[in-house]
Amino acid sequence: MMKNIIHNNIFPLKKWRLAGQSCATVLIVLASNYYLQLCQNDFSWELATKFAISWHTEKFLLGAFVLLVFQVFLLSAAGSWLIGTIFYVVILAVLGYANYWKLFYRMEPIYPDDLKMITEFGLMKDIIGTVPFSVIICFAAASIFLFVYAVIKSLSFSKTSQVVRIISLVVSTMLLVYISDFNNEHNLLRKTYNKTAAWIPYSQKMNYYNTGFMGGFLYNLKVTPMDKPEDYTKASVNNIVSEYNKKAAAKNETVGSEQILPNIVYIMSESFSDPLRINGISVEGDPLADYRQIADSTFSGQMLSQNYGGGTANVEFEALTGFAMEVFAPQMTTPYTMLLPKIEHFPSIVSSLKEQGYKATAIHPYNTSMYKRQDVYQTLGFDKFLDESSITDAERPSLYISDEAAYNKVLEQLSDDRQPNFVHLVTMQNHLPYEGVYESLKFPVTGDENQNGLTNYAQGIYYSSRSLPTFLQGLDELDRPTLVVFWGDHLPSLYSDETKEKNSQENLHLTEYFIYGNQAEVTPAKETISPMYFYSLLSEKFNQPTTGFNELLLAVKEMLPAFESGMYYHQGEWQEELSLSKEEEALYHDYQLIQYDITAGKQYSLDTFFTSKVPK
Questions:
Q1: The whole model's pTM is what?
Q2: Is the separation of the CB atoms in 73 and 296 below 8 Å?
Q3: In terms of domains, do 413 and 355 share one?
Q4: Which of 71-80, 265-274, 384-393 has the highest mean pLDDT?
Q5: Are 186 and 310 found together in one domain?
C-alpha cells in the first residue's frame, strides 16, 4: 500500500488528476493561510474571516501566494503530492499553534528567527505540556519519515518525470530565495505589499494583525541592524569619541592606582517582578520582603524591560553591551541569534573588564543552546560558560535549578582571589510553567482568573528574595570587595487580559533592580532606568574606571533614563512617541551613530571608545 501511495507521484499525471490536485493544492493553501490568521486572532472566526475577505483581501492573497510557492517546493522535493501535502500541513499546523501560544504567553508573534529554537525540546515540553508536546512530536516524526521515504522512492522516477520535477524544484527554490530578500527595497513582493500594507514597526503584534501573519513574518526576515545615518563618517564618529574620551580620562584620574579592583556580579533573575505593583490583583503578604530590605538601603528602583513575559536575551543584550533594542531596525528582534554570531569583535562590559585584568564567567543553570549563548558568550569574551551540568546535586524547588544553588555557584567562582572576577548569572528558577509547582503556598493571589499560577509564582519569587541576604552575607566573607547588579528580566506571562487592561503598558514592563556594594556606602535612591545603563552606573556610583562610551551613556541617561519602543521616560513622564529638544536630539543622534558604527558600520570606535585606557 505504501508503495502505491508513494508512486502516486505528480510527474507525470493524467490531465484530470493534475487538475484535481492543482485545485486541492490551492484550497489547502487558502485554508492554511486562514488557519494562521485564526491563530493570530486568538481563534476568532469573525476577525479571521473579515481579514481574509473584507478588510485585507489583497494581503491575504499575497500571503497565500508565498505559501503556494512553499508547498510547490515541498511537493517537488518529495515527488509525491500526498506526502508533500501532509508534510506541508503538519509544518503549518505547528507554526500556527506555536504562534498562538507565544502570543498568549508573551504578547508577541512568532518571528522567523524563533525557528532556530525548534530543537529546544525540553523547554517546549515544559511550556505547552507533556501530552500536547508528545502529540506534536509524533506527528512531526511520522511526517518526516514519510517525506524522507518519498524522496528515496522518487529517485526511481522516469527521466521525463525527473526533468519536470527538477525544473519545478529549481523554480520554487529560486522564488523562495527571492522572497527571503523581502526587506530589500527593490523586492517586487515587498513593493506589492507596500501598495496596501501600513507597516507598524513600533509594535510587531499590531504589525502582524494589520498585515496578516504571513505579511508580518516576511517583514521580520533578514535585515540590516540599522539604517545608515546620512552623516555617518569616520570623522563624525571620531568627534564623538574625542569628546567623551576626554570626560572619561578626567574621571579616571580620580581612581586611585592602588585601589583594589572589586569583584562584579550581574544577576538577571528570571521573571523577578513585584506583583504588589499590579493593579487589579491582591496578594496576601509580601513575597519580596527580603528583597525590599536590601533595595531600600542602596540604589534601586524599576527597570524597563523590552518585553512582557519573555525576551530575556534582549534584556541581557542591553545590560551587557549598553546598546538599546529601540535603536535597531524593528526586524532585529533577537541580536543574540541574528547579529552577534556574525561579528568577530563586539564591545561589552566583558571586554572592558577583561582589559583591566578581570576573569569573566557566565553562569546559566540550563542548557547552552538557548539563544546561542555558547557562541554569544564567546564573542563577548567570557572565559568560561557554566550551564546546568556544572551545578550537580542542586535543589530544584520548581522544574529548574534553584536560585540558591546558582548563588552558591557564583560564590564558588569568587573564591579564587588571585584576580578580580566578573560573574554574570542568568537564573531559571521562576521560568514558566507555574501551575502546581509548589506544595506549600504562603502568598495567595486573588483578583485574576489565573490565581493558582500567580500564587505559585509568588511562592517562587519569595524563595528568590529569601536567598538574597544569605548570598550577600557570603560575599562579605570574601577578602575582595564585591559590587552586585541584580534585576528581573520581565514580568511573568500570567496576568489575564482583564488584569492587563487595568495597567498601563509601562507598568507591565517594569521589573525590580538594585545596585549594591558590600564594602561601599551608597546613598539610597530610587530611579527608573533601562538595563543598558547598568555598567555606566557602576562606574559612576563606585568610582570605578570608566570609558568614553560609559560617559556617553550617562549623558543619554540624564535625558532619557528609560526607553523602549513605544515607552519613553522623559522629564519624569511616559511618552508613546519620543519628543526631544534640538540639543537632546543631537545627543541621541550621537548615541545612534556609535551603535550603528559597532553593529552595522566600520567599527571606527571599537579600539578607542570602549576602553578605560583613554588618552589623558
A1: 0.85
A2: no
A3: yes
A4: 265-274
A5: no
